[in-house]
Design goal:
Oligomer: single chain
Radius of gyration: 26 Å
Strand order of the largest sheet: 2-1-3-4-5
Number of helices: 19
Shape: globular
Largest sheet: 5 strands, parallel
Length: 455
């Protein structure tokens, strides 16, 4: 049934034999057992392992410490933690450290088998993704499919690679990044490159829906359920059936509805308000946020189980200030739009304006740049170039201040700052930062270690 062994780590010999026997009966015959957690890392160095079942409380080494070491060196191996202690804090820490699932002893066999099947399927999918990603990188294909997203930035081409990897699958994808970075464009591109491309793409801005209307807007309602419900209404989920639903600003979803969304993902069905019968769904969920959802999980403002369900695939959209020369490229594009909108014939930007564009950090990202350029074009009168006088005074002051404070740093310092900024933006996850930076996880670990030692 499996190409590589399942490793069971527990200090109780009788329990090891019991779990091994249970798995054998289910058809998992390639099993390795280990009582001493200190021997696990050497074992992983010489043996390919598909899955680890790990106990927490062992005399030689705490299972959480071992989990951290395993995940640091072998992040592709799913680890299911099985322990006799049902403690929420331990479970949260285990998941944070990289555990695929947390199960208490004695495990319910149906749940155990289901979790194992899903974990092995996830590992297989990630192996296929790695192979696909390698193929894309080696082939260096022309990116005609991304021609409408203007960029010359290597970090954006890393985003395109992830889109190409995630698009053919049916996995949930979480797109994170600051406001105005184009998360909605990437969500739509995932849909356009997916097998669902001929079906609906329904975008929902959760921040724009009042709390009292959340449930009816998302799931719909039956006729006569309440005053004014004169006919059945299909919610956003039902409208997207067969296609993709994009939940923008997912961090705004109220806690009570987070549970309903989790159930929708788990069982592929929804309940309209006032209807006891479920509606079966065939749907893909893509979500986006400008918040640190992991921080919200720790503050108990966002459900941990929903976070990990939404985050099967992760894409970080870099802010405009990290996109090299894209500011000028995008500014020229918005100049063309402004000329068409206001019937102008502006040819370009003065040297002073180009300098200001390059120095400003654009906290509002692409959306802010578009607003500045379009408004500048509207102010022009029979002139060939955008001048500083055409720009908002506050913008000019901030850009000039940034320019006067600019300190030229060494190349190594700039690289280190970029690495730390990317790590911070993805919740300090090496697994998520490595694809963005275009390096292996081990290379990134070594670089972070060197930065810590230097500081």
């Amino acid at each position: 049934m499996e190409s590589s062994p399942i490793l069971i780590v527990d200090d109780e010999p009788s329990y090891l034999e019991l779990i091994k026997s249970v798995l054998n009966e289910e058809g998992y015959t390639n099993i390795i057992t280990e009582q001493n957690p200190l021997k696990v890392l050497p074992l992983l160095e010489r043996t390919d392992i598909d899955l680890i079942l790990l106990d927490i409380f062992m005399p030689e080494m705490n299972g959480l410490d071992l989990l951290e070491k395993v995940y640091a060196d072998y992040p592709s191996i799913p680890v299911i933690v099985i322990t006799a202690v049902n403690e929420v804090q331990i479970a949260l820490r285990a998941v944070k450290l990289g555990a695929y699932e947390f199960i208490t002893k004695p495990p319910d066999t149906d749940r155990l088998f289901l979790t194992i099947r899903r974990a092995l399927a996830k590992k297989l999918l990630e192996t296929e993704r790695d192979s696909l990603r390698k193929t894309f990188i080696e082939a260096k294909p022309e990116r005609r499919d991304f021609s409408e997203i203007l960029t010359d930035s290597p970090v954006m081409h890393k985003v395109f690679e992830l889109v190409e990897i995630f698009a053919p699958t049916n996995e949930t994808v979480l797109i994170a990044g600051e406001t105005g970075t184009g998360k909605d464009l990437i969500a739509r591109k995932i849909h356009e490159l997916s097998p669902r491309r001929k079906n609906s793409f329904v975008a929902v801005n959760l921040a724009s829906i009042s709390s009292s209307l959340f449930e009816s807007e998302l799931f719909g309602y039956k006729k006569g359920t309440f005053t004014g419900a004169n006919e059945d209404k299909a919610g956003y989920f039902e409208s997207a059936n067969g296609g993709t639903i994009f939940l923008d600003e997912i961090g705004e979803l109220p806690l009570p509805l987070q549970g309903k969304l989790l159930r929708t993902i788990q069982y592929n069905e929804i309940y309209k308000i006032g209807d006891p019968k479920p509606i079966n769904l065939d749907i893909r969920i893509i979500s986006a946020t400008n918040k640190n959802l992991l921080d919200a999980v720790h503050k108990k403002e966002f459900r941990a189980d929903l976070y990990y369900r939404l985050n099967r695939g992760y894409i970080y959209m870099p802010p405009l200030r990290l996109r090299d020369n894209d500011v000028v490229l995008l500014a020229e594009h918005f100049l063309e739009l402004g000329n068409k909108t206001y019937n102008r014939n502006v040819l370009g930007f003065s040297d002073e304006v180009i300098s200001l564009l390059k120095q400003y950090e654009f906290p509002g990202n692409i959306r802010e740049l578009e607003n500045i350029i379009i408004n500048a074009v509207a102010k022009t009168k029979n002139q060939e170039y955008i001048e500083t006088i055409d720009l908002p005074p506050d913008y000019v002051k901030k850009a000039e201040k940034k320019s006067s404070e600019l300190i030229v740093t060494g190349l190594d310092e700039a690289i280190e700052d970029h690495i730390l900024n990317v790590m911070k933006s993805v919740g300090n996850s090496i697994q998520r930062a490595a694809p963005i930076l275009g390096v292996s996880e081990r290379t990134l670990q070594r670089r972070l270690k060197a930065i810590r030692e230097k500081n």
